[in-house]
Specification:
By secondary structure, this protein is an alpha+beta fold. Among the domains are: 110 residues, DnaJ domain (Helix Hairpins); 92 residues, Urease metallochaperone UreE, N-terminal domain (HSP40/DNAj peptide-binding domain, Sandwich). Helices cover 24% and strands 27% of the residues. The strands form 6 sheets. It has a 4-stranded mixed sheet with strand order 10-11-15-14. Strand 4 and strand 5 form a beta hairpin. Helix 2 packs antiparallel against helix 3. The N and C termini lie far apart (101 Å). The structure holds zinc ion (2 copies).
């Protein structure tokens, strides 16, 4: 077992920054393009892959190993490989100069060893499920970003084993089913003959090993299903039917696999006063006869709490006239602009009149109104 801290020449307590610095130094020193030792270069890269990941480093500190990827690369011969050519093939030729950024190495190495594909295949099996939930909002809620709290049943990573599934302090043994290869052979007979296929081992999820003693809390699953209150940030301007994706907020993966995503489908409830079309709002306002003739102001309720909107009515306003109030609609999703508010005005005909009002209206009639 190689000591990753030793390889990078850092203390066990090194900060992520120190690790990165040490890695850059070592990667330059051993870089094959500069005549460095490819074997050392590989070791440095492997150590960095583990120590630069919070999760993997935790696993490594706890169990002395990491449960996916990095170690599987060991023992695969690559000495004598033409790296110069390889960098170009990998599209990294330009980076191999003095400005070369070693942080890109991880990916390239994974592609080179083919372990990335293999890891992805494993990941598919271990990945947590996506979760879909419906969230109902009031129209008022779309004016500003809101934090929505909701309790859901979901898998979360087991804290006792850091999601690995092994009882802390216990060893890991070779998987019996696949004898450590992480793969199982499947033979299919068809009209074309016999096809031999290799599939990811179902018992170890392709890792080639299983914990000697499964975690006491999660029984080796690496995750637990609990009712959990989650908080989601809903941006302003969302609309009914819209689906928001929250990456990695779904079920935690099995045995440290990646988490699924959370999909939130939104439903904005109809409003008592305002009708919404896109970013625009529509409402109606009643104005009395004298305001319609002489002009004046009407108060319109606002979606914003404790706010009123004043609509100025010009004189001689016919019933049914629509007024546009720019920027009084709802905010555009992911934008700065707001829609407009359209107010349809109706002239109210009084149903009950006092004696004075009746006399005055009679006088108006005599005046030809
Ligand atoms: Zn297996
Ligand atoms: Zn556990």
């Amino acid at each position: 077992m190689s000591d990753y801290y030793n390889i990078l020449g850092v203390e066990k307590t090194a900060t992520p920054d120190e690790i990165k610095k040490a890695y850059r130094k070592m990667a330059h020193k051993y870089h094959p393009d500069k005549g460095g030792d490819t074997k050392e270069f590989h070791k440095v890269n492997e150590a960095y892959q583990v120590l630069s990941s919070k999760e993997k480093r935790e696993q490594y500190d706890k169990f002395g190993r990491v449960f996916e990827g990095a170690e599987q690369q060991q023992g695969q011969g690559f000495e004598g490989f033409d790296f110069g050519n390889f960098w170009q093939q990998a599209g990294a030729g330009a980076q191999a100069g003095p400005d070369f950024d070693p942080s890109d190495l991880g990916d390239i190495f994974e592609q080179f060893f083919g372990s990335k594909m293999r890891r992805n295949e494993n990941e598919d099996i271990k990945r947590g499920d996506d979760i879909q939930i419906d969230v109902e909002l009031n129209l008022e809620d779309v004016l500003t970003p809101v934090t929505h709290k909701i309790a859901i049943m979901k898998y979360t990573s087991c804290s006792r084993c850091s999601g690995v599934g092994a009882e802390p302090g216990t060893k890991v043994k070779e998987c019996q089913t696949c004898r450590g290869t992480g793969r199982v052979q499947q033979i299919q007979r068809s009209v074309f003959g016999t096809i031999t296929r290799y599939a990811v081992c179902p018992d170890c999820g392709g890792e080639g090993n299983t914990p000697e003693k499964p975690c006491n809390v999660c029984h080796g699953e690496g995750r637990l299903k609990n009712k959990e209150e989650i908080q989601i940030e809903i941006p302003a301007g969302v609309d009914s039917g819209q689906v928001l994706k929250f990456q990695s907020r779904g079920d935690a993966g099995r045995k440290g696999g990646s988490a699924g995503d959370l999909y939130v489908r939104l439903m904005v409830k109809p409003h008592r006063i305002f009708e919404r079309k896109g970013d625009d709002l529509y409402t109606e306002a009643e104005i009395n006869f004298s305001k319609a003739v002489l002009g004046g102001e009407v108060e319109i309720p606002s979606l914003e709490k404790n706010k009123k909107i004043i609509l100025k009515i010009p004189k001689n306003t016919d019933s049914g006239k629509i007024f546009k109030m720019t920027g009084k609609g709802v905010p555009h999703f992911n934008g700065y602009n707001k829609g407009n508010l359209y107010v349809l005005t109706r002239t109210k005909t009084p149903k009950i009149l006092t004696r004075t009002q009746k006399d005055l209206i009679n006088k108006l009639r005599h005046e030809g109104l």
